[in-house]
Amino acid sequence: MKPQPVHIGLLNAEEIPDEIRVSLNAGCGTARGNGMIFIRAGGQYLCCEDSEAGEDLIRAVTGNRDTGTRPADPWQKALRGDVSDGIIRDNVSRCVIVFRASSGQDKLPGRALFEELIPMETGDAITETNGEIVLIKQADGLSEEEITEFTAAVTDTAETEAGIRLQAGIGRLTRNASELKDSFNKAETAISLGKRFLAGESVYAYGHLAAERLLDAVSPGERARLRKELFTPETRKLLSGEMMETIDAFFRNDLNLSTTAREMFIHRNTLIYRLDKIRKVTGYDLRHFQDAVAFRLLSRLPENEE
Fold first, then answer.
1. Residue 239 CA, distance from chain mean position
2. Considering only CA atoms, which of 191, 183, 278 is closest in space to residue 235?
3. Dihedral (C-alpha) 136, 138, 142, 147: value to the nearest 10 degrees?
4. Is the model's pTM score more than 0.90?
């Protein structure tokens, strides 16, 4: 059988994804991505299709070097604070997102599956550390809200298409490679705080956790005492099921009666009746900002703390 020709391309640095360029500049003989194999050739880069024939061609070009060679991951080094090699460019907006298996799952799926689940853009990179998958997301033109929506879409896709339940922490936006460690640490902190104070949620953005960070600064004993003040036997009976759904919807709609009633498909007077009942039992009138803030904080305190 006549062998199929393999086409090879010559690219400049700006024409290849950042994670490929970074791997090659770090000393990796070859790098793979987007169905292609890449090698460095002086100040430019050669690429061909990622196939058996492509590997044969690369071996011929590189003098039979092993195409599977992998050096230390420069992204992992950056997450530890080591950017001394200068490989990762500065003045690029990035955000670190950490994915972790939810409670009850023993092991997080490998990097290869995540590369299929996550819609990677130019400049994005994935690495693994401490049993977690870490996405370094290039964020030029993206707001923190848009990054949160993106992350939620990834966790939803993982559950619906692969049956994997994930928790995700989102760090702060950065501009310099030296700041990636801080963004990574904040993403880890976000997961820790979210698991304790935001039961039922799976995506936690550090920038949206100011209240939870304040609660974390309070001693466990004081948190337990404050929670007992709100959740008496009488209030526990009231604040369950339908009533908590009403409270969550009211907060989600910025204390707007009409919007909340429409969302819940109930009459406005029904909503007012429920809020009055909450006020009578708890002493908190959720239509008033100060009471709403206090109730929101107290309701997020974790149970079973001593």
1. 31
2. 278
3. -20
4. no
For 243, half-sphere exposure in the C-beta direction (CA atoms, 13 angstrom radius) is 16
Cα–Cα distance, 261 to 249 (Å, whole number): 9
189 band by pLDDT with thresholds 50, 70 and 90: very high
Q: Which residue has the higher pLDDT, 261 or 114?
A: 261
Whether 198 contacts 164, CB under 8 Å: no
Q: Which domains does the chain have, with CATH numbers?
A: 8-62 (no CATH), 74-208 (3.30.70.270), 218-299 (1.10.10.2840)
Edge-to-edge strand order for the sheet containing 31-33?
A: 8-11, 44-49, 36-41, 31-33
What's the rounded Cα separation, in Å, for the pair 210 and 281? 28
Q: What is the pLDDT of residues 5-27, one digit of tens each?
A: 777 888 877 777 777 776 676 55
pLDDT grade for 206, boundaries at 50, 70 and 90 = very high
| Token representation of residue 181 | 């460690």
